[in-house]
Structures are given as structure tokens and as C-alpha cells.
Amino acid sequence: MIVNDAHCHFFSTAFFSALARQKADLAPHRAGVRGGDPAKVRLYGPAVGDPAHVEADLQVRLNDLYRELQWDNPGTPEALADCWVQELDAGGVQRAALIASVPGDEASVAAASARHPTRIVGFFMLDPSAADAPARARHAVSDQGLKGLCLFPAMHLVSLDDERTLRVVEAVASCPGAAVFVHCGVLSVGVRRKLGLPSRFDLRLGDPLAVSRLALAFPHVPFIVPHFGAGLLREALMAAEACVNIHFDTSSSNSWVRYTPGLTLDAVFKAALAVAGPSRLLFGSDSSFFPRGWQRGIYEQQRQIVADTGASPADAALIFGGNFERLFP
Ligand SMILES: [Zn+2]
After folding, report:
1. 22 Cα: distance to centroid of ligand 1 (angstroms)
2. pLDDT of amino acid 25
3. Which of 1, 40, 91, 249 is most buried, most CB within 10 Å of its CB?
């Protein structure tokens, strides 16, 4: 059976640089320096908000960050892409969607998919509130070869009903072959938590029913809701029933099942198969950093669950590879 992974993160140097800048901005002795009080600048050095200063010691900060996380330095996008392909080979995975996981990092994942076009499909996170968001979205899918716009409404504090969201979806919808990924439900970013970075997300904005409204407006665009709606399973199923272009990815440990007492991942798969059917489920692992690499355990667990639901081998083949192939040929 061909295995494709619809949900992995491309944690590039640009991604970690963004985190390092955010962490620097939080350093306690820097607080209050931003006003540029000369005495404080003498005492503490230039304000961290000063880009020249931050860039000057970014390399030091990055190395500190990798040490703190105990994660590998990803190096160039090309080196990270090679690392991913080795990892996919080792896991027996044919292709994977890799998400540029900070706004503005389209170039990293574009370089990765250009280097391994038969293995890597590039997705990119976009903040619709950025002034250039529609142009960036259009450029990413029509010039940089990326295939998935990733919206995180709870993170970027832009509702799915907002005109700015509509503009970026419109931009992507005009390019054939691109999908829109919308993170709904609970959102926790492990690396932010590990680094003590605040995550002031508005979880109310990640509503699958709002995805259904967009999906109805753009019926030819595939929409992907990860983790079965990450806690909003009922709403995700309702949205999928209303819109044939809404898909789920099965990624991560799906630990959100604990929000519904007694719910198991087996039951989630059964419900999703009953409502959306096997052709709208995309296996995903939510793998992200190295040296951990590709999350084989998630794959093995889900293979077993799908087998236990009584799904036919043909249906399992769709979930673990065929649907991805159809959406991203
Ligand atoms: Zn993820």
C-alpha cells in the first residue's frame, strides 16, 4: 500500500528564527527598554526590538534555542528537505505535505518541494491580517509551487467570516490544484509551550461550521480540517456532511478525544467514515522536528484502527495514500 502523509511541519531555520526573535522580545531585562531611554540603553544594551541588534546575535540565540529544545539545527531548506526525504524513505512513505509553520516562510518549503518535487508537497501558514496576504497567497500557489494555504484563525485572530480571510481564500481558489487547510478546535503549539512563549489564541475562531460556509462558497476547492476538528468533532462532521469538498486529516495523537468522556479514536474514525466516507479522510502524522523525525507510532496505531473498523483494503488505501494522490497529483 502506498503511504502519503498529509500533515507534517517544516521547521526551518526561518521558523526557529521567528521563535528566537519572539523569545528575545520577552527577555525580562529588556522590558521597558523599547522606549529608547538612553540611560537604559547604556545599561542593558540596545532595545531588542531594534532589528539590527536582534539580527546581530540571532545565530547565538538560535544555537541557544536548539540546545534548549534538544532538537537538531535544520540548516538550509535544502538540507532539511534532504533530511525529510531520508526520513520518508526510512518510514516507507512516498510523499508528504510539509507545512511552513510561521507566516512568511513560504520560500523555505518552496525550496524543499522544488528540490524533491516527487516527494514533498508544500503547504504554508498565512496570516490573513497581513497587508500583503492575498498577494503572498497568490504568489505562493501560482509561482512558488505550493499546494496548500494553511489558516489558523485562532492564532491569527482573524475569523473565518472576515473579509480578509475571504480575500486569501479567493486568491488561492483562482489557482487550480491548491487546497485550503483550516485548523479548528483546540490549538496548542508544543514548541511555543516548551520555550515559554505565550499563545494568546482565541479558540472560538476555529469553528468547523465557519469552514463549511467558506467551503460552500468555493465548491471546487478542497478544504482540509486537521485532527477531525480537534475537539469539535460534531461540528466537523456537520460541516463535512454539508460540503463534499471538506476533508479531514487524521493527524497527531488526537488527544482531544479526552474532552468527550468515553470517546475513543476508534469511534472517531467510525463516525468520520460513516459521515464523510473513506475518500475524504487523509492520513497525517503531524511529524515536525528532528531527531524525532517521522512518527511511525501514529501510523501504526491508525492502520490498526482502520483495520478494526472493518474498512476494506481499498478504503484503507484511500485513507493512507490514495486521497492525497487524488488531491495532489
Ligand atoms: Zn500540525
Report:
1. 20
2. 82
3. 249
